[in-house]
Amino acid sequence: MKNNEVIAAISTPVGRGAISVVRMSGKGSIEIAKSLFKNMPEKANELKLGRFNGENFSDQAMCVYFSSPRSYTGEDMVEFQMHGGYAVANAALKTLLNNGCRLAEHGEFTKRAYLNGKMNLANVEGVMDIIDAESVTAAENGYKMLTGALDGKISELQDKLTDLLAQIEVALDYPEEDLEYVTKEQIKDALSEVKQKTQNLLDTSSKGRIIKNGVNIAIVGKTNVGKSSLLNTLVGYDRAIVTDIEGTTRDTLSESYVYRDVKFNFIDTAGLRKTSDVVENIGIERSKKAVENADIVLLIYDGEKVDGEYEEIAKNPKTIKVFNKADIKNHGNDVLSVSAKTGENVEKLKEVIYEKIKLGNISSSDVMITNARHIDCLNRALQSLDRANEVIDETLDCISLEIREGWQALGEITGATANEEVVNRIFEKFCVGK
Ligand SMILES: Nc1nc2c(ncn2[C@@H]2O[C@H](COP(=O)(O)OP(=O)(O)OP(=O)(O)O)[C@@H](O)[C@H]2O)c(=O)[nH]1
Ligand SMILES: [Mg+2]
């Protein structure tokens, strides 16, 4: 019953702005609009200027309606473009709620689109990636997912498995015939092809994660080497407290900066040193965690030799050694020397980071895996196909069972085989009005 109701929501962020979009979806929404809007468009998909007659207000607004199934949700839909700001949109929404609509839940418009077959789950997640994108590349990847770039790849893999299963089925159905419908070699070959392609998709996920969430860069080094100063210079404003007192930074602190369309998440840390200060020690533990979790570590020196913990970090392949305070110290030409104070070489440091993450041509036409759910599905598919390989000398039934599981796991990506709980979890993350 619930899905038959007309839902309504404000689809733009609430606050002061030029316009607000209020929308409705469901059977009956066009009639509700007709009763409230003067100068309703005569045809679908036509934007008309008119008057929205609310309960205790009226205002000039634009209105467009879409007829089922040719709409975002697949249902009849109406959108009002109202004047912006808090009052008008809220008053319009209240009017709609008092005239037969109920407030939409998070992502309910998109959920209806999914339930009506307008989108599959990967498309839906593409929409969410676009909305959440903090760089153009992330938005572009979301667009590829929305428009089916991932579906194509997944269904290609599933089709290969379906073919294989069909061959196995035939062999199972006619065991008495001497004819071999499918050989172990053929099964192995087909499995290894699908596995390779699945792995190729998974391999895009490290890049994909960086594109979506940014690259995590921990700034570490002894106390007073200028870590917090460098963070401030890197992000362009005084984010962290800087003093000449050792142990100024106690907790990790992060700030983001978009460089060449990649989000750099800098994490300033407490300098690792032996101290009896309880708070500082907790901070130091957090610094160690930050190093573990980072994609890149900036190990900051101010000229003095580092020892202990830092030697380990210095050897880590994800570490970039940075020599700070170049304005007052000469570190020589063989090292990357910067000055947080004057900004010398700080842009160069950003470029060094960018080069190190080796994104290559990130705007390549291929879709990248950015979603933890997809990674999980692909991994489970791979495991099933591995198990199918392991039981290759057993009965065809055993092999077929594992292949089916792999097929199933792949299908969860687009939602063909996803259960309701997974589907609900995805839509909960959406905003109201989308
Ligand atoms: N001359 C010069 N001084 C700097 C530079 N970078 C930082 N300093 C100074 O060095 C001192 C320590 O700077 P911070 O940025 O607080 O150092 P930190 O590494 O964050 O120190 P902790 O948080 O205590 O670990 C301050 O007095 C800064 O002004 C630099 O590039 N040149
Ligand atoms: Mg500091």
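^ guanosine-5'-triphosphate complex. Residues 149-173 form the longest helix (25 residues). The chain has a mean pLDDT of 90.
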